[in-house]
Amino acid sequence: MTDRSALIAYVRRGTPRPFYYANAHEKDRVPVDLQPMPVRDARGIGAQVDREGFQLVRHRSIVTDWTDRAALEAIHRAEVAALIKELTGADDVFVTSPGILRYSEKSGKAGSSDNSHPARFAHVDINDATAAQFAERGAGGRAFTRCAAYNLWRALSPPPQDVPLAFCDIRSVAADDLIVADAIFDPPDGAPEWSFESWVVGHNPAHQWYFFADMTADEAVLFKTNDSDPARAHCLPHVAFDDPLAPADAPPRISIEMRATAYWWA
């Protein structure tokens, strides 16, 4: 699979503080700045979650129906926690979301369930302030020497994916590329809205973008959204992009994202 030039949706710098919704994207204030950037196939480069901020892992789940919320709760949470614990050496791993299914627009299912649109602008799910709040809350008063937040992203549709996820090597990101924004969750069941701070990403021509071509359901990408250890990759900007080399009849991308917090206790 060859590398390609693709349009990466950055967020324009110097505008009022951005905010975005999980569902009602017509209310977003995210001024997009589309920039053509090289996006390289990361297969074979040996990317590591503590260095670049992401890595490809082999993992076969026993879940057969990814829309079965009970199976995700009863089976996949434990699978993800065990995998991340093995890969990172953490003392404890807590999966903090029930699984987020997302669909490319061509599927006709984007927006059909809570938070099911692809992530169409470059962002980091949580910023340092939010990460610290979540870490303290999750620890329940127990002292820890390190806390890291991870996502495990898996493509469920067969390859090639029409809208893959791109990952920006954190070593190529400057501190002022990360712009504070508000992520607003608007549950479709009418529950009250809630929010926390995240980062969106401003364009920098030095950014190094990667993706994994032709992912299968027995593969996943582990990437980091925050780490309290300054000696390791801190976080990872990521974004869904239209693959210009995907054939017109490529199956619409379906994916699932699991979020987890890992602790190393004092």
Which outline best applies? Answer: globular
Q: How large a portion of the residues is in β-strands, by DSSP E? A: 35-45%
Number of helices: 2
Extended strand count = 15
What is the typical, i.e. mean, pLDDT? 96
Which spans have pLDDT < 50 for at least 5 consecutive residues?
A: none
Rg (C-alpha, Å): 17 Å
Distance between the termini: 45 Å
DSSP helix fraction: 10-25%
Class from secondary-structure proportions: mainly beta
Describe the sheet with the most strands.
Answer: 6 strands, antiparallel
Helix-strand pattern: EEEEHEEEHEEEEEEEE
How does this structure look, described?
The protein has 266 residues and is mainly beta. Helix content is 12%, strand content 36%. It is built from two helices and 15 strands. Strands 4, 5, 6, 8, 13 and 15 form a six-stranded antiparallel β-sheet that branches. A five-stranded mixed β-sheet has the order 1-3-12-9-14, with no helix packed on it. The chain has a four-stranded mixed β-sheet with strand order 2-10-11-7, with helices on one face. The protein starts with a strand and ends with a strand. The mean pLDDT is 96.
